[in-house]
Predict the 3D structure of the following.
Amino acid sequence: MKSKRMMIAIFSLMVIGSMLLAACGAAGGGSGKIKVGLSFSDFATERWKNEDTLMRKLLEEKGYEVISQEANHDVKLQNDQIDNMVTQGVKGLIVIAEDGAAAATAVDKAAAAGVKVIAYDRLIKTKNIAAYLSFDNVEVGRQEALGVMTALGLPGSTTWTKDNPAKVVLSGGSPTDNNAVLVRQGQMEIVQPYIDQGVVTIVADQWVDNWDAATAEKMMENILTAQNNQIDAVVASNDGTALGELQAMKAQGLAGIVPISGQDATADGCNSIVKGEQTVSVYKDIRLLSPKAVDMMDALLKGQPVTGLQEYTLKILTGEDLEGSIQALFLPVEQVTKDNVYDLIVKSGFQSYDDVYRDIPEADRPPKP
Ligand code: BGC
């Protein structure tokens, strides 16, 4: 009798237990799946939302539960979000840092708690990251500057001489993003020799906080006022800021006349290229980077060997006096202009035909691929 009651009690406990488990599962709390966190600086830049969707899908296909947050350019909020994801039990974090120095605080804590952290696209300045995956950011800068210098007719121009140097604006990205620094390094490799020859002069050299398009527009308005609209080229650092600057240039009749660069081959940037306003962009295929990050996270969490990484000192990557080294991988990039945007960007499906040729009369469009 006693044992029958005991059996019923045990059985009831089992039923209640499984009901509780099911309830937790539905709430996402106890699904039994390993959690991975995605931490984004912002969703203002076109690419990040796409990468959020892509990485979430790939991680879920591998059976992970994904928590994703974006910090709206707020450095403190991003650190709080990272701390919070660690509290929620994530075992891996893929971080797009708003500020590579500030994010180190939260990332160090996460790593100390055993969380594997991948610095995605942007460096986080700590040796406690498991990997840093990005594109060749110095080459991005070289290709931007090359596109603009070529449009100016350099080298070999007879227009730009020591007596009449081309007046060039340098527009950097967010100063707290190490990529902006690497991009500038590449730009200067190309531009500095022309400055040294005296055929280029820098009339403004500024950086755009948060890579914000509206800030870039305002900055360009001020530069144009100060220079009496006498500028010959803009070495800008991404499509978002270039398009902001083009607004200010358009208001002065300079869009399509003064060459300007960008990067990311965004839908809007490519559209501006086919309209003849933005001169050059740089193609970084996120369809290759996102799966790399997901596969690497999967291997890290399974304790499997991670391949394809190379060691770099933080000193080399930042130019700052930082200790330690990290494992990194940089994917190649390609220049995009009016001449190859169709083949490189549209045909490959990176951007849609309709987005790239938006507002372009039917007769002036290439055939649909
Ligand atoms: C990325 C660029 C992006 C920029 C603004 C950089 O770190 O490398 O692709 O345009 O941030 O979000």
The first strand starts at residue 35 and ends at 40. Confidence is low (pLDDT under 50) at residues 15-28. The radius of gyration is 25 Å. The CA atoms of residues 315 and 322 lie 5 Å apart.
